[in-house]
């Protein structure tokens, strides 16, 4: 039987305001047994794409039926809906703005529910009390509390929707037989530039062309495929890291800084 | 029956030292069942007013008898007392330096206790062991552990005091019939400038004067009252956010940066 | 009977990536009852010495048999081993790179185990699946989950080693009868410069020489020994803080900035 009590939090609230604390209290007020896990509150303000990619990096490592709450929500209080998306594995609570785009590419959707049953929202003195600028505290947190009790059906929270907002995930393009044109999705704390080239694509091309590729980024050629950061011999190298995407890295420094890489920048993989 | 195990932490310890870790360990050593919630450790060093305002933003969303620990304590080790303040709702553990000023304006005080019973403090090899520079670890954390067990009476921890240090909360002043002069209390991560003008004051004036006000800040006039950040039409606007105070905001940028606003800066609200 | 469920996390992963979230999920997937405590994820990238000193500042305040996980691991995926070190008090999980040097000077080692039993590592579809760049998630986190269940013996995780990597802890040197030459180990968030001079050494010299010493740092003399930060009378002073080492501090500002102090800098203590 699944344990429902885990709730992860990913937000752009920052570490120095009261917002994270208020959300945690609102969850615990509904479910005193909830286990709340901070992932990050340092998503750059309003950066939906960074949040979507970050979510991809941790959600699948959690137990079945964990509730993943993702609040990067510049449109809070407007017509955009508050969602519960039930996949084969998890509950996702998020605004309908594309922040689930990456994970929904990997997981089968079982239900998309628009959170409209105000009975589950924050109430004060017996009346629903939702601040239009803070659905994280007044809508998502209490619903997370209820979900983490495991006793309600997703349909109790509101009507089903056929779709939710999903942005197009940038895919590497094949240019001719021997070149993949990918792009940087994310630069991590260490300055590793993580691209959208998957290990499967890379391995398939390498097997077919029977040769090792080089990477071309910012006009520089990078030729070493290292097994791990500390095993590299060249100042610049590439590898497959924890995200399972091709990464460009540098020996104990930031590859992104050295090469001027940032999300959206093109990267070429050239075989032979 | 209340559950006593929740302890929230707000400090100026920062995220990169051992101090937060030591405090958590000291709590768990007393109460293995304690549930510790990080709110923030990024209060600017020694900034009692920022901590006091931040506390106001989350404490009331927690379950009854949560222990809120607030450690911004430039006077640690001096004559200032270590307090347990019991209100109608919560236990507050804090140095006696004004950091509870905002919440004590809203909540009825049931007892102010000076933590003096050394029996509850950290001990090492059977003897009380309190570092004069780290009461958070050696006094507040073990007392939080004991409080969160729910088995002691507040009076067990020391003698009652009649008062505690409270700084004056700046209130908006009415200048004539149609002008409120408020001030900025806090700038949040998004650059929203949160003032001390309450929704009640604002609504009362607006109803009486049958007109919408404009805000004057740093010589600029701001005329749009938006329902939510993403619903605004003007580059600069105002609204009532999660704190329930009047905020000055800007469309997907920092209003504080755009207008040069910081805590203490005057803001006018002008009707008609 | 000890409670085994506590796991503390100290890493250089930073606060804005998915890495911390993935590690927490991987722990909970093995032990749903684990209590995970964030200490810090802001150790400077690859800074083994900072991590080693930070660990010393919190580990001993935790309950018996807490699992302390310390991941600052530039050599991940190379020949360096993944360790479980069992001391008289705790389980330490860390790469074999010296990051345990400070705590192992204080605690008796009961066993050093090389984590090699792949049965305990991350598996996917029934097969061991370890990313060479992310042992924190795929080796250390699942082993922490198992350890925190308390049902296995340390020897179940792999073969014993005779030694682990330990860097030399810099000790103060006596130059003549009346001078100790120490060095700065760490600068904390408040700018306090924490040296390697212990309270015991300081007290012994002071008792023997029947006089108070002065500190010489960056060519400046500091003469006040304060009982606590807020009790100091001089702009610059020294004291014994939460780490129980001699610290150089400044009144409500950064002593390290004022004096140009950083880890490794020499500090003299001069008696008479």
Give a nutshell description of this structure:
The first copy, chain A, has six helices and 16 strands.
Q: Whole-number average pLDDT of chain A? A: 95
The chain pair forming the largest interface, with residue counts per chain, is:
A-B, 32 and 39 residues
State the oligomer. Answer: homotrimer
Strand content of chain A: 25-35%
**Total helical elements of chain A:** 6
Radius of gyration of chain A, in Å, reads: 21 Å
Largest sheet data of chain A: 8 strands, antiparallel
Helix content of chain A: 10-25%
Low-pLDDT runs of 5+ residues of chain A are none
**How many distinct beta strands of chain A?**
16
Q: Based on helices, strands and strand pairing, what is the structural class of chain A? A: alpha+beta
Order of helices and strands of chain A: EHEHEEEHEEEHEEEHEEEEHE
Distance between the termini of chain A: 52 Å
Overall spatial form of chain A: elongated
């Amino acid at each position: 039987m699944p344990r429902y009590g885990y709730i992860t939090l990913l937000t752009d609230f920052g570490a120095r305001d009261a917002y994270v604390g208020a959300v945690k209290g609102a969850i615990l007020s509904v479910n005193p047994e909830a286990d709340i896990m901070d992932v990050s509150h340092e998503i750059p303000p309003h950066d939906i794409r960074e949040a979507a990619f970050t979510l991809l990096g941790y959600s699948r490592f959690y137990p079945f039926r964990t509730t993943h709450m993702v609040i990067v929500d510049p449109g809070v209080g407007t017509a955009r809906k508050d969602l519960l998306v039930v996949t084969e594995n998890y509950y996702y609570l998020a605004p309908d703005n594309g922040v689930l785009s990456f994970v929904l590419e990997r997981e089968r959707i079982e239900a998309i529910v628009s959170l409209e049953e105000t009975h589950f929202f924050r109430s004060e003195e017996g009346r629903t009390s939702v601040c239009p600028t803070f659905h994280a505290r007044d809508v998502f947190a209490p619903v997370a509390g209820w979900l983490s009790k495991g006793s309600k059906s997703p349909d109790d929270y509101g009507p089903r929707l056929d779709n939710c907002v999903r942005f197009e995930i940038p895919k590497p393009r094949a240019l001719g037989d021997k070149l993949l044109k990918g792009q940087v999705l994310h630069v991590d704390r260490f300055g590793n530039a993580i691209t959208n080239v998957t290990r499967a694509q890379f391995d398939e091309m390498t097997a077919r062309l029977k040769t090792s590729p080089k990477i071309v980024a910012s006009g520089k050629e990078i030729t070493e495929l290292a097994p791990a950061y500390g095993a590299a011999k060249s100042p610049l190298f590439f590898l497959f890291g924890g995200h399972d995407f091709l990464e460009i890295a540098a020996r104990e420094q930031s590859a992104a800084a050295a090469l001027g890489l940032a999300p959206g920048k093109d990267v070429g993989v050239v075989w032979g």
